[in-house]
Each structure stands twice: as C-alpha cells, then as structure tokens.
Amino acid sequence: MNVGGSLIVGTGDVVIPGTSDIKKDLYAFGAIRTDGTGGQLPVGKDVYSGGNSVANLDITGRLFVPDPATLTRTGVNVAANNIVQLDVPQVSPCPCEAERRVPIVDLVTFARDNNDNDLFVDDPATPGVNEAFDATQWSNPAVTVRPPSTWPAAATTSRASTRGRA
User: Fold this and answer.
1) Which strands form 47-49's sheet, in the order they lie side by side?
2) pTM
3) Does residue 92 form part of some domain?
4) Hey, what long-range contacts does 33-41 have (CB within 8 A, 24 or more apart)?
5) Cα–Cα distance, 75 to 8 (Å, whole number)
6) Which domain holds residue 118?
7) 109 and 66 in a common domain
8) pLDDT tens, 24-53?
9) CA separation (Å) from 77 to 42, 63, 74?
C-alpha cells in the first residue's frame, strides 16, 4: 500500500503492510505496527498514535503519543527529541451526524427550481424546427443552442437572456 498523502485511522489499532510507504502523516487512535514484511515502514512526516506502542516505523518527522514514558517502541527510527507528548484525539471517519451531512435532496430541488431552462424555448422564426431545450439536450455536449439574444427581435421576450450554449 502506497499512500501519496496522509493515512488516518480514526478508531482502534492499525496493522500496516511493512512494504507500504506513507508520504505524509500517519494517524491512528490506537497502537501502530507493521505486519512484519518489508522492514520499517517509511513515514514522510509525523506519526500520531493514540496507543501505547509503535513498531517498525521509519519516521522523518515527530512521533506524537499520549505518554512517552510508557510508550513501547520496537524497531522505530525517530530521534528521542522528536517524541512529543500529545493526547491524540479520536476522530470520526466521516461527518456522520445528521447536521453535518450534505443535503443532497435540498440541493437538487433548489437547482431544479432555480435555473434558466425556461429561457430556451422554440424560436417562432423557424417553424417546424423544435428548438426547445430539455434535460436530454442539456446532457449532450454535442448539442448547441442559439441563445435568445440571436433570435429575431419579434421572437424575443423580456425574459430572454444572452446566456446559452454556443
């Protein structure tokens, strides 16, 4: 497993394949260790562990743990002055609370009710050609629509817009 950014494990201990590579931070609420393959796991920046043991890590930055005095380190490459006491908080893996969820239905309803779709109507100057602009045409990038501003003066209304697809 190669992580180009940070790896965050919100709850519990984590066992990572030793053949992995983490370019930025490694965060776990519990203990951190590798599965024993591949030697030390390189971590490009800091490691945050809410547990009391870390193993088989090559840490470029600092190691943050709740209590350095009770920390069990096995095969960890980090300078002693880079081990920092920090009460590592537990994090939620996602915003699961109802008040933090994205209101998808409300967003779709708003977009449906607040748009300029009705500006694209059939041009009376071209009888026999249906130029009404509907959802099927909108989703097709090959369809072009003449904006109302290009229609003959008799065909435009006060609701006409200069916006449109060209």
Assistant:
1) 7-9, 26-28, 47-49, 63-65, 83-85
2) 0.58
3) no
4) 33/74, 40/75, 40/76, 40/77, 41/16
5) 21
6) 103-155
7) no
8) 999 999 999 998 887 889 999 999 999 989
9) 9, 10, 9
